[in-house]
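Teaching assistant here, posting this on the class forum so everyone can see the example we discussed in section. The complex has two components, and the goal was to see what a joint structure prediction looks like when all of them are supplied at once.
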Amino acid sequence: MVDTPTPDRTLDTKGMLCPMPIVKLSKAIKELEPRQVILLEATDPGAIPDVAAWSKNTGNPVLAQETVDKVMRFWIQKS
Amino acid sequence: MSRLLYVHTGGVGTPERSATPIYLATTAAAMDVEVGIYFTVNGPTLLKKGVPETLIVPKYDGQGAPLRRFIDQALDMGVKFYVCQPSLDLHGLTQDDLIDGVAMIGGAAFNDMALEADQVICF
């Protein structure tokens, strides 16, 4: 278990496939205030590179991530 | 803001090719990229009223989804849809035959979009 920030919101995309986790993440982050943190949970096998690419392009940093039993979790801060 | 332009030439005869450019464009929009899809050659046949609801994007197990789902996601995320008149004429279509949310452009406007885009991706 990594040391993780307390999220302001959790977004469960487990079972969803590309592109839905990123689409849902895009919509959810627009509803946050700057510096708030969203916890994204995903099982899409492409989620790790996809979240990294999304973060790079949108400027919203991934503060922490972990994978436990094929569930990937990303703590993402709204920039 | 980065810009991507997709060119979609697949039509109702190749349902397996119908959704990919649309969901890639949706993903680009989710990455805050300004993105459009130019439907040309057979592409406009996908946008004829009634087609998106009945055209099933195939899946190996027979549990495919209607194209409408992918189109609605794209439009909802702000992806712009474009067609031009000659490719409508190819199929006997007019703008009135198309679903809502499709803009008419011409070749010059398309070329200008391509020049302004960071990348043009053709299907």
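For the discussion questions: Chain B has one domain: 3-122. The first helix of chain B runs from residue 20 to 30. Think about how each of these relates to the inputs above.
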